[in-house]
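Lecture notes, unit on protein representations.

Consider one protein chain, 275 amino acids long.
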Amino acid sequence: MSPKSRLYTLVKAWKNKPFQEVRDACGQPWLGLSGEALKEHQSWSQRQAISNEPIFNSQGTKLTSSLFRPLLVATDTQFLRLFMEGLDTITYWYRSGRFIPGILPLPAQHLASSNLIDALSDLILNSRLPVGLVSLGVHKLNETDSMDCCMEGLLRMRRLGVLIHALDFYGANSQIQWVKQMEPEGIHIEMGQFRADGLPSEIISLGQKFHAQIYASNITLVKDLENVMAMGAHHSYGGLMMPPVSRHQMLHINDSRIAKAIFSLHPHKNLNGDK
């Protein structure tokens, strides 16, 4: 092969390519990214690894949905991009043959922005996901002044078949007003608040009062699981059930083995009809 031929040049470039890529990876900036862009890329990679918190039925025998955690702390500039990532994750599961509903958190005040609701509507419609796979987890239900302004955005989401969840519910009057107006399909209650004083009677009857599914969150102790059963919650999640996982790992999850083991040692009456 002549050293001057085009084929010789191509083969030589191909042979040297792996070494060139190693040098590029070790150099600065990596892949042409600035320091700030590289930090953002690394942050994105980390979110992909542990973004999705599995949600199970009350006894941990069945995976029922997932919470996309990066949206809980998203800034205004990050929100749409992370919402797209959440939708892409649900789509990935659906196309892989798993029907795993995803809960995408959204601050309550965002519902008052018609421009944002327009953008979310376009993203949800373009995802072409079946009704029931996408839920909005509305949180920061603290101020009732803006509640009326948010109802139009909420109604537009419902028209798309999006389910509504109220996150971080602890029974404050402002939250009760929000729940009455929203009529959510799910109410998420943080279980750590009941470890010292036990379950208030109004919390036990919450699901019947608002005709909603009750989700028990932040389950990290066996005591929390006992309160879940006493409360009659329909779903549960937290570190004791299973920590957040990647979207790839989620495909292989069917139940919470830790919770199943605990309930096999401490059997409780099955309040939800789960098997």
